[in-house]
Amino acid sequence: MEKALYKAVTEMNPQIYKDFYKFYFKKHYRTFNIISTCISIAAFALTAYFYVMNFGTMWILIALWIAIVMFIYPRLAYRRPSKRASKSRQTTRFRFFDTHVIEKTNGEETDYKYADLQEVVESKKYIFIFHAEDSVSIVVKSEVADNGAEKLAVLLRSNVTNYKKTNKF
Fold it and tell me: What sign does the dihedral 108-111-117-118 (CA atoms) show?
């Protein structure tokens, strides 16, 4: 039997879910964030125009409401799915080998080859392993056995074609 190079255990908690969804929404909804910010700026300008041109108070409030919602909503959109997911409690055990990783969650074991992974993103506290667009595993770097998080990152970086590092989270 092949011996694992690195082992990790991730016990999901509300903070991990919050950090993940914040990261995911910033990464995957970047275009929406840019567009909504532009719409928000335009709505703030329209509000100022309505005020200067003495339009009715109702028009000013509508334009202001649109501006505020379009500015705030994209920055807080991650909270709802984060709260929903935070009620879920699961523990995932990882075993990393030279060419693949084996995950065991709720008694179900899955083997992923590094070459088949869609993307791996390393942050300050986590390693996000994207199997597909909607399938991700989260490794908490502090939970990698024997303080091997940096060595694990080197192993993944050398074996995964789409490896990225971010300074957030």
Answer: negative
Q: How confident is the model at residue 132 (pLDDT cuts 50, 70, 90)?
A: confident
C-beta separation of 126 from 140 below 8 A: yes
* pTM for this entry: 0.81
Phi-psi region of 132 (alpha: psi -120 to 50; beta: other; left: phi over 0): beta
pLDDT in tens, 139-169: 999 999 888 889 999 999 999 989 999 887 7
Place of tokens 């597909």: 132
Give the total residue count for the chain: 169
